Structure formats: C-alpha cells, structure tokens
Amino acid sequence: MNPHSGKGSPSPAELAAEAEAYRQATLAESEAKATRLRADARAHAERSEAQGQADANQALAGSLREGNQELIAASRLIENLPALAEAAARGLAGANLTVLNGTQGVNEVVAGLIGQGISILDLLKKSAMAAPATAGDGTGRAALDKIA
Asked: Taking the domains of the chain in order of start, what are their residue ranges?
C-alpha cells in the first residue's frame, strides 16, 4: 500500500517526484563534497608552497651563515637570468639584422652571443684569480669556477 496516496502502488508522478528529490539531494551532497575537496586541495597546495619557500629560505640562510659562496653566486646568477635574457633581446630588437638561412642563422647569432658571454666570464675568472680573493679563503674563485 502506498503511504502517500493510500493506494496499493505509487503513481508515475509520485515516482518521478521521489526520483527527482533523490537526484537533487544526491547532486547537492556531491557538490558539497566537491567544494570541500577543492578547498582542501587549495589549502594543501598553499601549505606545500609555503613550506617549500620556507625550506628554501632556511637553506639560503644556512649557506649565508656558512659562507657558501658557490651557492650564493649560482643563486644570484639564476635570479638574474630573466633580466639578462631580456637585455639581450632588447639589444637584438633594435638591430638591423638580416638572417638569410632561417632558424640556423638565428641559432648562429644566439651561439655567437653565448660565446661572447662565455669569453667575458672567462675574462672575469682570470681577473679574479689574478686579484686576491675577497673572502680570504679562495671561495670567490671557487664560485666563479662553479658558474662556468
């Protein structure tokens, strides 16, 4: 017997209403779970990023305390790479350069620029070796060797 109508079996309209109510409840429950999971994932990602940054800061602070010049020099070089690339691009942007052999020609220009950069680095290394190390323990020269 149907408790809703007092009849023996539910009507198609009652079945449809119950199915729709069940569907709506299930969708609401699923959406609530999805919202909680998204919030938890965001919070976890933010915690992980903050922890990674804190670990990096601690490692850098430890290196500074220990006088690890190689790490400091490499870190500064990496931090400045975007600015160096931008400066090189600005220099090429105003150049009246005609490349007749496509990507190979562009690659040759870039290789030439890199070669000049390496020559400058070698010159700096030689001048650093000729001058006394600033730290007094040779770490200045070692830092330049690690960069190259």
From this structure: 1-66, 69-148
- Sign of the C-alpha dihedral computed for residues 63, 65, 67 and 73 taken in this order: positive
The answer for residues whose C-beta is within 8 angstroms of residue 11's C-beta and 6 or more apart is 2, 5
| Spatial CA neighbour of 59 closest among 43, 78, 75 | 75
Cα–Cα distances in angstroms (integers) from residue 1 to residues 18, 21, 115, in the given order: 16, 21, 91
Show Cβ contacts of residue 59 under 8 Å, excluding neighbours closer than 6 positions.
none
For the segment 58-107, what is each residue's pLDDT rounded down to a tens digit?
A: 887 887 777 677 777 777 777 877 787 777 777 777 777 777 788 888 78
What is the C-alpha separation between 109 and 115, in angstroms, rounded? 10
